[in-house]
Amino acid sequence: MEKAAPVAFASAKMRALKEDELFPSTPGKFKIERSHQFHRQYQRCFASSTTIFLWVIFLIALTASFLSFQPFLSSSSRLSSAHSWGGLQWERQVRVSASPRRPSGLTVLVTGAAGFIGSHCSLALRKRGDGIVGLDNFNSYYDPSLKKARRSHLSSHSIFIVDGDINDARLLSKLFDIVPFSHVLHLAAQAGVRYAIENPSSYIHSNIAGLVTLLEAVKSADPQPAFIWASSSSVYGLNDIVPFSESHRTDRPASLYAATKKAGEEITHTYNHIHGLSITGLRFFTVYGPWGRPDMAYFFFTKAILAGKPITIYRGRDGLNLARDFTYIDDIVRGCLAALDTAGKSTGSGGKKRGAAPYRIFNLGNTSPVNVPTLVSILERHLKLKAKKHVIEMPSNGDVPFTHANITLAMAELGYKPTTNIDAGLKKFVKWYISYYGHAARGIFKTNL
Ligand SMILES: NC(=O)c1ccc[n+]([C@@H]2O[C@H](COP(=O)([O-])OP(=O)(O)OC[C@H]3O[C@@H](n4cnc5c(N)ncnc54)[C@H](O)[C@@H]3O)[C@@H](O)[C@H]2O)c1
């Protein structure tokens, strides 16, 4: 106890008590009246040498603990998210990946680059000669090995994905210090509607807190990039006027996911208004295709059908089939690139607004909703297998009964025009699925032909 007393870990109260004992401020606190004079001097002498000794120990302990915590403090954000970044080699990879390969090419930070849409957009940007740096935290919402496979694919096209979180302000500041990004294509998010029931805070972490951390970095960057980001058709929520148009109500979300995307639209508006950031929000409608997301129905239906397992099909409460405006990935990528190319400049610099900047919102859909039984029958045809269907009434899980995009605005301002119908798109998806998941899937596929 004596040895431990001066060490910093004791509570403040304990420390005060010990210090009082060691350094009596009033003589009355040390009851030594009955002691011999020599004994008293000895006591005083002993007390003062003990005091000095303990102070020395205390200072050494304090210095040692500060030094040992120093690396943790300087990289606390990295440790908290268990990612690693930094160093000369890392900076070189970032710079090389960010360099455009064509005159006046864009320099784009793509968040969520290891994700489904992010990986496709990154590749398309690189193919036309733009510079790209990806950022992704490789979380395990769905199988991270698929994200890593996408990363390897991008790496073979000289695209570097930084392993980090959009909540890491130090990392973002470093990236904007190293690279003068012209655009940010922000696709990182906690996607999926149903998972919010299980893990609501992941939506707040990525779609609200992460968005604000990223916008803070973008706002402070000099030059200030244009900001293009993924909102969602889910913001239409309980709207039942079809097709969904950008001018319709979006204040009745049916899920936490939708609420965070709607909040994102409001948050980006304030950064446009206060800081002069050029903002484009893209409301994607059920994107599907090769390298897609395993949590989406077309993907896990395929897996189950190939494995001979039953699939659950939800039907609306009124007996109507659920329908989605399925949009093929290549059409979405063209929409994203058009949004990047037409985005006006941010007017601010280093956090100071210099004038009004554009604030745009576009639907990117296919304008031709497909109901779930039709989706399944197309999959059955391409897989040459019959699905074991289990139809039940849709539970209250945040899903809306249908989506249908009006894309007039995107056609007029982005030249957006979807060209892939669901049959052609699913055919490409099935081909990719069989080739990606290899022999096991193909084995089942062949035996059931
Ligand atoms: N796919 C669709 O049908 C669809 C529809 C509407 C909107 N969207 C939106 O489009 C964007 C891309 O969707 P997707 O289908 O490619 O999803 P995805 O999950 O495949 O991609 C998102 C990526 O972001 C990463 N990520 C998540 N949180 C992060 C964080 N805090 N820091 C760094 N990285 C993080 C994930 O690891 C993932 O790789 C998302 O914003 C999504 O909400 C998608």
TrEMBL record:
The protein's name: UDP-glucuronate 4-epimerase
Classification lineage: Eukaryota, Viridiplantae, Streptophyta, Embryophyta, Tracheophyta
Locations listed in the record: Golgi apparatus, Golgi stack membrane
Domain of life: Eukaryota
A Pfam family hit: Epimerase
Reaction catalysed by this enzyme: UDP-alpha-D-glucuronate = UDP-alpha-D-galacturonate
Alphabetically ordered keywords of this record: Isomerase, Membrane, NAD, Transmembrane, Transmembrane helix
GO molecular function ontology, one term from the record: UDP-glucuronate 4-epimerase activity
Similarity comment text for this entry: Belongs to the NAD(P)-dependent epimerase/dehydratase family.
Enzyme Commission number, as recorded: 5.1.3.6
GO cellular component, one term: Golgi cisterna membrane
